[in-house]
Design a protein that fits this description.
By secondary structure, this protein is α/β, with parallel strands linked by helices. The protein has helices spanning 10-19, 22-39, 87-90, 98-110, 134-141, 156-165, 178-183, 191-203, 224-232, 260-273, 289-300, 311-319, 334-343, and strands at residues 43-47, 54-55, 60-61, 69-71, 93-94, 115-119, 146-150, 169-173, 208-214, 239-243, 279-281, 305-307, 323-327. It has a single domain, classed as Aldolase class I (TIM Barrel). It contains 13 helices and 13 strands. An 11-stranded parallel sheet has the order 5-4-6-7-8-9-10-11-12-1-13, covered by helices on one side.
Length: 344
């Protein structure tokens, strides 16, 4: 028995994946993995950037300067979103001035690092204040480092500026619920602002890597369906799916994250909606047994890469005859691997 999802429209694909019973999910996993094999090589990419110390039986990334995350606002964030409250910024290297940013990037270069993620807290309107750092990022690119930028919402000025300096990727969280935007992000905006950001990145030929946080609305699935449809309407470089990671010191620290199988249903829908787009399980997800299950479901659902994979993920990849390639850089750079293949 086969489920011919590719003949369905977006709403039907998402509904089929989200509402499937366990017996039906087995068929969907099989179809998704076959679709992955059809459109991509039998390779899975495992990533361990220098955001946290990570070691496994197949990779040992001890240096935090391989591909660190840098915050251009330090620990400051105007929005103080309910799921973060600036806690994620505390894990980043602070660089509140262009001079500090360049100095840190020089250290990364001297340590033989690959590059960095440039991020920061948001302003009142949902933007990361990057404009004053654009000339410095251009200088950093000349060092030969790979630069990925986490932008928040995009306006025309920022889109044109990012296009002019040839960044390696722009990461942007896509939210498909106005209620989540207001109640979780504390942002006076709508989903149209996020769609407009994707349009600006696309029209300026900037490689965009949208992220969908499953369970962002206090652990519940709320805007994920609309976020998937929104992303599928645009030309993107890759798509990253992550799970709510309850953080201590936030209003969500005691919230139960969505189960691994619920996250997997989002990944399944993404694979069927965007069969030719590189798909990844990103770095944000609870650890332990949760991570082991989520890694396994993600591989079966047809992802091309996983950030901070478990040893069990490596074993499953071998069992499924997927060649493993490891990188000490941000998983959002996966799209470049497929560009290399097209050029050869």
């Amino acid at each position: 028995m086969r489920i011919q999802l590719m003949s369905f429209n977006a709403n039907e694909i998402i509904s089929e994946c989200f509402q499937s019973k366990p017996s039906e999910l087995k068929l969907l996993f099989r179809e998704a993995f076959e679709l992955r094999r059809k459109n991509f090589p039998n390779v899975i990419y495992f990533y361990s950037p220098g955001v946290i110390r990570f070691a496994s039986s197949f990779n040992d990334a001890k240096s935090l300067l391989k591909f660190p995350a840098i915050s251009i606002t330090g620990r400051k964030c105007y929005l103080n979103c309910e799921h973060c409250k600036g806690k994620l910024l505390e894990r980043m290297i602070p660089a509140e001035t262009p001079q500090k940013l360049f100095k840190i990037c020089l250290k990364i270069k001297e340590a033989n690092g690959e590059g960095c993620l440039i991020s920061g807290g948001s302003s009142k309107d949902g933007h990361v204040p990057l404009i004053n750092f654009i000339p410095t990022i251009k200088k950093v690119k000349k060092l030969g480092l790979k630069i990925v930028v986490h932008t928040g919402l995009i306006d025309q000025n920022l889109a044109e500026a990012l296009a002019s300096i040839d960044v390696d990727g722009v990461m942007i969280d896509i939210i498909g619920s106005n209620e989540t935007i207001n109640k979780v992000y504390h942002l006076n905006s709508t989903i149209e602002s996020f769609e407009n950001s994707l349009s600006l990145l696309e029209s300026n030929n900037i490689p965009s890597i949208p992220h969908i946080v499953v369970g962002l609305h206090f652990g519940k699935l709320k805007g994920e369906k609309e976020a998937l449809k929104m992303v599928a309407r645009h030309r993107i470089a890759a798509l990253v799916i992550v799970s709510l990671m309850p953080l201590e010191g936030t209003r969500m620290e005691d919230v139960a994250p969505p189960s691994p199988i619920k996250v997997a249903k989002v990944i399944l829908a993404a694979r069927f909606l965007m069969p030719n787009i590189p798909l990844l399980l990103g770095c944000a997800s609870p650890r332990g047994l949760y991570k082991i299950y989520l890694d396994a479901f993600s591989i079966k659902a047809g992802v091309n890469g996983i950030a901070y994979p478990s040893d069990e993920a490596y074993g499953l990849a071998n069992k499924l005859k997927l060649k493993v390639k490891t990188f000490n850089e941000c998983c959002s750079l996966l799209w470049k691997e497929f560009c290399k293949r097209e050029k050869t």
